[in-house]
Amino acid sequence: MNTLKTAVLMVTLTVMLVVLGGAVAGRQGMIVTFVIAMGMNLVSYWFSDKIVLRMYNAKEVTEADGGVLYSVTRELAMKGNMPMPKVYVIPSDAPNAFATGRNPKHAAVAATTGIVRLLNREELSGVMAHELSHVGNRDILIGTVAAAIAGAISMIAQFAFFFGGRRDDDRGNPLVALAMMIVAPIAAGLIQMAISRSREYQADASGARLCGNPLWLASALKKLHMGAQRVPMDASPATAHMFIVNPLRGGGMANWFSTHPPMEERVARLEAMAYGPIS
Hints:
This protein has 279 residues and is of the alpha+beta class. The protein has one domain (2-275). It has helices spanning 2-24, 26-55, 67-79, 113-118, 121-136, 139-163, 174-211, 214-230, 263-275; strands spanning 59-61, 86-90, 97-101, 107-112. A four-stranded mixed β-sheet has the order 1-2-4-3, with helices on both faces. A hairpin with a 5-residue loop joins strand 3 and strand 4. The protein starts with a helix and ends with a helix. Residues 167-172 have low confidence and may be disordered.
């Protein structure tokens, strides 16, 4: 169901791009803007792993110095018949983790020193299984494509807003075009967030199966949610969606626009996997 939902949302984003581009810039303008946006995001896709790891001062560890984090990741990779990813440690007390890399053969997982101190081995196994599931499910690619399309929509809307829409169709309604320029980027952002939430649910489920016990991940998420509220991470909003729990302090209406699903729902789904749905 999550895969189908993601596909529908991706198609919706693509249709929005085509409709908006044709409405405000004409066919030629739409193509040029789309190519520029895709080019920018293609570069980001190839180099984003290095950029984000450097952004958080992540240091690569090996079997000799990686401790439980490295050994747990190696066990899970072997169990899932996946290539062993590079393992990084982020010097931060905020408990969190993320995965990056363009495919399973060029993947990396990163965890903060705070998460290693906070969780026991089973809980850490649940977290790393979640991150390896993101890699195996190609979520990084999906997220990059979604960001590329949403970015193209925003670029077209901004261009049209500041420089005016197409001039070759006097029959167009300027109020409708203006509404599209304002609403389309917001809608694209919301759809991108919905895709991110759907992939988080999927990674929770497949990660629970990989580590062998959904309750390990459920327990980890509870601790991480509380820990992230106590010690929010100095994270960029542009990369917040990558982390297993939202690294930014939020609440109220901010949760409506979060790239992460509600923690209560994530935990409930994992507990239902372990115990069965509550009747």
